[in-house]
Amino acid sequence: MTLELSDRSALREARVPAGGILEGPRVLNRLPEGVEPRPYELFGVRPLGRVIGAEIDGVDLGEPLTPELREELNRALLEWKVLFFRDQDITPAQQRAFARNWGPLETNPFIPAGDTDEVTRFERSASMPGFENIWHTDVTFRPNPALGSVLRLVTVPPVGGDTMWADMAAAYDNLPEDVKARIDGLKAVHDYLPGFDRFSDPEVLARWQEQFPPVEHPVVRRHPETGRRTLFVNQSFTTHIVGMDRDESDRLLHYLFTQAHVPEYQVRFRWTENAVAFWDNRATQHYAVNDYAPHPRVAERVAIAGDRPF
To answer: What are the residues whose beta carbons fall under 8 Å from the beta carbon of 163, sequence distance 6 or more?
Structure first.
């Protein structure tokens, strides 16, 4: 018997649990609607993914940026969301100087510091395993989450230790229309405690509760430079949706969290000695793959202060 594709009356009832990710074509727009890609004149660009991630050739991060180079790098950052630079033998001071081209730097009291408080140091080993292996956006527990971060690996494990990023504008673009309508205008609460309470001293966490109360951010934020709508909830820091009962909020957040897991929205970077990553924290989530034990992995990050999501 031959069935028309629209005729399912002869099929038995069978379904997977609701609230998951469906297969099929995806909308993969790297740039905002109506914006055409332009060539880069001051450096080479080697894409690593369809919508996110590119290696930049011909830029020395240890040298001061001209206004023209800074503008072109910023355009590349907005287009590719995370930029990778290999063979950058720079000092922490040069790393900080590069990041300051995008604004003042912030500190993080929950992570050990490097040579200054503006540098956070992730020193991982068999006795101190990493806990960044969850999809997240950095410091959304702040009223003004970071604009972006510059990360360099001080010690690269011989195997494993990759970092992945996901384009959360692509994640939003591919939501069903009814979900987009449902989350339009909603706000969610973000708190630092879920992201640190399993791995930090409770006394240290308690000390910062007054300075870092829970904050509300839109579930969908608009990127302040591109105007793209971006899914802005993450499993490390988003606790619940404002005005929704806990069970309903948990179900919706679980569904939204899983959108970062789609490979078409992702890029995966294999670190090499003196490689640097610079990402737009307003547009992405990231995940540090924790598969390198017992080898050490040491990274230093500088974060650029951001603005209030809207």
So the answer is: 151, 268, 269, 271, 277, 286, 287, 288, 289
